[in-house]
Amino acid sequence: MISIYLIPLLVAMFLAVNMGGSGTAPSFSAAYGADLIRRDLIPGLFGIFVFFGAVIAGEKVILTVGGDILPSETVTMTISIIVLGSVGLAMFFANMLRVPQSTSQATIFALAGPAIYLDVLQTRRLFFEIIPTWFITPILAFILAYSIAKYLYYPFKVRFKTVLAFLQGNSAIKFFVVATACYVAFAIGSNNMANAAAPVLAMAVNMLDVEPGSQNFMMLMLIVVFMLAPMFGIGSSLLGSRVLHTTGKGIADFGPLGASFISIITASILLISSLWKGIPTSLVQMNTAAIIGFGIVKHGRSYIFSEAP
Length: 309
Fold this sequence. Notes:
The protein is mostly helical. 82% of the residues lie in helices and 0% in strands.
């Protein structure tokens, strides 16, 4: 009987592996592309900071995903397998096709399917908080990236070329770029860990009759996160190499510092979404919007929207 209930955990591990593969590039592409970190060190660092992000800042998102779309009391073993399996397969095929996808959005819609079928879909947070945030955060990332690039980064780069050239080779800058990568991994843990952990946790809470938010709930959450976090690192190792190489070598257009500023913008918005309202949101979309903002400042609108390959 106990082995049967391990199936949702195994499916959640499969999902976490795929999230690790897709999350490596936005985290460590700048540091890897600038040859500031060895490839074999990335999966371990990524998994460690995803774990810390989930434990320190991920509770609200886990509660949202675990009960604010599909009521937690309706999450059975079968439903948790359906939800996790659907998202895991979607992310697996997306990784194989090298197509960036939002795990958070896939998870929310996967939860909405059973909720509609059971006629228990909770629409208030979905339509008035979560979906509006999906539209607002990429726009905010674009505005911040465009403003920082136009009024701070590139003016500084033009005026202080000598200083910047000196800083590029300084160990403090190298540390800054790697620390930024770890910060992005922390933000991913605070938000995306919920996609794999919440359905398993909701099932366990029902089985053990644990009160959400209680000390026993926190202990269960810690156990689930502890088991899933290493899967992010394994996914980084197995699935992240090709995307990391492509993305990492492609960020040379912005330079490691420019790419790090893009990462700080998107990771900060993601972390605020986690801590403030516990809303699962898309790092991929914010990252794309921020890159477009920086690109417009450097190359102009016509290149970005018409001539860029």
